[in-house]
Write a structure and sequence with these properties.
single chain
Length: 96
């Protein structure tokens, strides 16, 4: 009987901790990029180039930095990082 009480207490404590973590996760917003929400942006579809079904190139902006990434089946590879103004100005020149 004592073992059953200990087991029920342990299960109850685990359920309480799980519920508490779930509640905290829903109440406290996740902040990206060093605690500043809204700095990570998904850009337009034109800023992605599909090379194959499993390979693509993406341009990602985080704050005032731009990153050129290759996404592949093994993960992600960083090709280039520059100030966003340089990447934006280079795209305008290429379009002209």
């Amino acid at each position: 009987m004592e073992a059953l009480v200990r087991l029920m207490t342990a299960v109850g404590a685990a359920a309480f901790v799980g519920a508490l973590l779930w509640l905290l996760r829903r109440r406290i917003p996740l902040r990206l990029a060093g605690g500043q929400a809204g700095r990570l942006r998904i850009l337009a579809q034109a800023d992605r180039l599909h090379l194959s079904p499993q390979h693509s190139v993406h341009v990602v902006r985080v704050g005032d930095r731009g990153f050129v990434l290759v996404i592949h089946s093994g993960g992600c590879t960083l090709l280039e990082t520059r100030p966003w103004s340089e990447l934006r100005d280079g795209a305008r020149e290429a379009a002209a």
